[in-house]
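Entry: Putative effector of murein hydrolase LrgA, UPF0299 family
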Amino acid sequence: MLFSLALLLGCQLVGEIVTRGAGLPVPGPVAGLALLLALFAVRPQLVAALRPTTSVILANLSLLFVPAGVGVIGNLDVIAQDWAALSAVLLVSTLLSMLAAVGTFLAVRGLTGRDSA
């Protein structure tokens, strides 16, 4: 488990260093995920080595939402003051995210030549 966690966090750290050092407009964890994907392509056995650890992390993913909930409760005064603007931003960003997901799906479907699911 220590190797798996070290590999996951190491990829994220390298991603952060690369994006900040090169001034790339990409989040560090995204670059780290790309690095992890490249490692999987080069060494496919890493997938099996990481599977037990990642299964535990995913099974307990809901615990990662606790700090966000505490942050919301801690900033109720801001939410009460700016609820209309926050609601509009949440609505627009959700719609844009959904449209981006659909666009990506359609683009991949077009590139792979699969017209039906």
